[in-house]
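ping. complex inputs:
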Amino acid sequence: MTSVPGIEKVLIANRGEIALRVATTLRRLGIASAAVVHAEDAGSPAALAVDEACPIEGETPVAAHLDADQIIRIAREIGADALHPGYGFLAENAPFAEAVEAAGIRWIGPTPEAIRLMGDKIESRRFVAEAGFPLTPSASEEDDPATFASRAEEIGFPLLIKASAGGGGKGMQIVRSAGDLPRAIELARSEASRYFADDRIYAERYVESPRHVEVQILADAHGKVLHLGERDCSIQRRFQKLVEETPAPAMDDALRDRICAQAVAIAQAANYRNAGTVEFVLAPDGEFYFLEMNTRLQVEHPVTEMVTGVDLVEEQVKIAAGQPLALEQASIRFEGASIECRLCAEDPDEDFRPAVGPLLLVRPPEGPGVRFDGGIAEGQEVTTAFDPMLAKVIVHGRDRVEAIARMRKALSETVILGCTTNAAYLERILGHADFAAGHVETGFIPSHEAELASPPLTTEERDTVLAAAALSNRDFVERVSAVPEPAASIGRWQN
Amino acid sequence: MMRRIESRIDPRSAEFQRYRAANLERVAEFRAMQDAARFERPQRDFDRLAHHGKLFVRDRIEQLIDPGTPFLELSSLAANTEYDGDAKSASVVCGIGIVSGREVIIRADDPSIKGGAWYPLTVKKNVRILDIAIENRLPVVHICDSAGGFLPLQSELFADKDNAGRIFRNQSILSKMGVPQLALVFGQCTAGGAYIPSLSDYSIILRGNGGIFLGGPPLVKAATGEVVDHDTLGGADVHTQVSGVADYAANSEEEAILLGREIVSQWHRPEKAAIERREPEPPAYDPQELYGIVPDDIKIQFDMREVIARIVDGSYFHEYQPDYGKTLICGYAWIWGQKVGILANNGVLFNDSSLKGAHFIELCDKNRTPLVFLQNITGFMVGREYEARGICKDGAKFIMVQSGASVPKFTVMVNGSFGAGNYGMCGRAYDGRFIFSWPNHQIGIMGAEQAANTLADVKIRQLERAGEKPTEAEIEAIRRPVLESYARESSAYYATSQIWDDGLIDPVDTRNALGMAISASLNTPIEAPHYGVLRF
Amino acid sequence: MGYDFALEGESFAVHPVHRPGRGHLAIEGRAFAAELFPGLVTGEHFLEIDGRQERIFVAVRGDVHFVHWRGRVHRVEAIDALERARRAADPAGGAEVIQAPMPGTVVEVAVAAGAAVTAGQLLMTIESMKLQTAINAPADALVGEVCVAAGDTFDQGDVLVRLAAGDEEPGDAETDEEKAR
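pong. complex structure:
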């Protein structure tokens, strides 16, 4: 029996960790849940968690999840009255959002207009600039393709060439000198085309050693816009976030309030609705600039949930059902600190090359303040078909020190065997003095490359590992125990 | 309740120190000889091995046996007094090792000795090791790398019953008994030698160095004029792909040995005969003290209990009939957890000790307890009293029961082994599964002194009948050659050279050697006891 | 001679050290007591080693052991010594000749001279006694010469295909006489 009037059944148009996360809240709210499931994901935790697993087809699993028509058809067939797009795939695809609404299905997310406006990097920047908010200097190719390169140069180096429709760190190139510019433009354009089917690009000033600070926004259909605090997501590799936390470390409250207030103002100016995140670049000198707005629920939303106690998916569903936000800005309490680490199937020692393999053993961490958001199960095969992120480890502590300690313990206790993961690498980040001191910035990983590399094994460690392997090797144990007595007790001896 | 032997010797006594010094020297001498036989070769022989890509025979064995396991080498000093010392260990290494968890016999030709040629004593050693295989139902791994029979001495190794033909006969009987054999052909197996892999259940042949043919290229050319090289005539490809004479081909010795281990791992593990067992424990007394117990003069008596105490588990010994027949110690003990019945000499054999021995053997036989004989015997008692009391028939009963015993028997020549005492105490002729000797051991029909005196007496009487009286010098001239030849032919080195035993061992190695030997003997079921007619 | 395991690209021999009482191992000359006990949950083990007790998780797939210890995962591969010896002893380079295992007819040839083939790749299909057999490449190689064509009959032992290990020029099959001209 649904506790959100108007929404009886939700179709989750996503997979893996986020699909499971959404399904968990839906169950708690008494709402029937369904998900589109590709054959490769049959039997996955998400597929098993929903009430209805609806098969989708496509040449590749990714293609299936981008098949808007098929998804809408399925939603209609099962009588879903709402659709949650998760993140990635079609979550920020305005035409898809429109088509869903046109089919009489509520879109659990912002309006298509908001998606169009803020989901487009170039459009959103123009809008924010016109609305009087500070931005990093930038130039868009669209304005005048002929002069794009020279206008980009005018911004000054270093600069970034980015995909307008981009996100998730894809389609970005750092350019440090004029000589590299033409090639970087080519690369960014081809990546933009390939990942987002939209080859529009723009250039913007690249702030060295910036921090990446974002603010969680919730807005209802009745004009109320709230923020639920900031998140610092500076620890990134290849422009993708790896570690996120709240509150942002080493930040005074005045700055924190200014950033959050600005985020709210931007969201208000855009007539935003539902959940979203305003991202800023925070320069070492304390200046911050609007970077982009993500018109969807983000991967790292759990850290906000851990400190505020608010279930963001629940709020999303209620907003989509037309309910006014029950929360008040003044009454939102921020307790303690929370950190999230993204567990990925990749090898940090091999330049983060994606890893594949069977998940022979999966043992999530447990303990006070530990939350594991994973879409993986033992027996699954990790392939290159999907994103390398396997799960998120989230911890909460009374303060940042406790949160770090809990995260380090959780990471070393997380057991995933059969496919290489970055668990130990993440633990080394968390254990680094610079991280503890809050000296985070987007160049953290490259600048600490040597220190974060896997330390070589000592002889004692090597022997321990080899002994464990030998003694768990059936052949070895059988051969050794086959030696009869008294030869076995006499041991190595010759007369 | 297990009773320990109480040692009565004083390691600080002058006697102990003197014996110890003498025995340490003997053992050092033995070890030096053994090391030389095992490892010393002219550099050109090592070079030749390297040139052909061959591993040294001991490295082959090392790679074959399971890591961390023992290897009991037998007759390491065979042929040490013959052939001018050219044929070290009789150019073949034999022993018992563990391969893929199975007790096996390893018989490896040593190509660093005259190309691994078979001397008469090589043949004897090979026949003996296969006799051991048959008696103990032990599988055999042959590493074949021999140039063939040593032709100058062919009359001593070819035609007789226990000559070369017996090797192949033994192989056939082993196979008939269902005991597997594996041959690794690392050299050219020519003529008779070709039968070793051919009679083995499994064979691996090395590409390049390996070859099997009844007639080698020179013989073929001489016989028919056909000119053909080794490989085409009988190399790996011919035999593993065309003729089926060999089963597997390998490109390196390492590969062949690993494959051999895999083959052995397929062999059935037989059930062992059930004997009494317990958790092993080391002797309570230090085996190193053995050096101070055996005197430096063979005429001096010592208490064999002191030897037993330093060989058996926990020095536990349950002595049987302790007050009767005291010149023969009988009792139960454990060696590496295996229960045995021990008979040990503490003097000459009298009527009572002979009867006690026979009785105790009967008990062990009924009790399914293997027998261990510790020899230090000069013979049976002589004299009118003893003959009248029937020492002949009492000794005969001892020999009759001992010969007919069904349980496995093991002999250690601790010191002297003379005359009929050798017989009763399970000398070579009595089918003991294994015989080991200490370097101080002496063996002969009688002691050197006794023999010299006897022969001198005969000569003196002869001369006296002719009315002459020999001078001191003449007596000496009779005695000295006897003493010299006896000294040479009664020594442990001569005995082991002739393969009258299965090897000399350092006294402190006795426990391990017996432990392995007893275990290796138990593949053969123990028959029910029964004997011939006992003259009462 | 020990049993070999590879860790981080290096091979180590693990020797069992037989001794009365608890298990012992030796690695690179260092001996220590080591025994592995199963834990309470799947994959959990307790390794008693050298007087310490370590909690580890192990999962095995084929010859590969994944060991989780102190927050790090290590990949250890059990090396098949025989396979390794075979690969080491295999004559490198040089031509390999594929001979007919029995008399028969060629049904279909799947490759041409000069083609690069991988181990196991189909070279041709033959038929004998109403049974079709696939002739596959024994290892990665270059096809030097295909000596038969579809429809040809052959005897046991006849050469069907000549392979090269990759650095031989295919088709260089001139006779001495031809070279001399």
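The mean pLDDT of chain A is 92.
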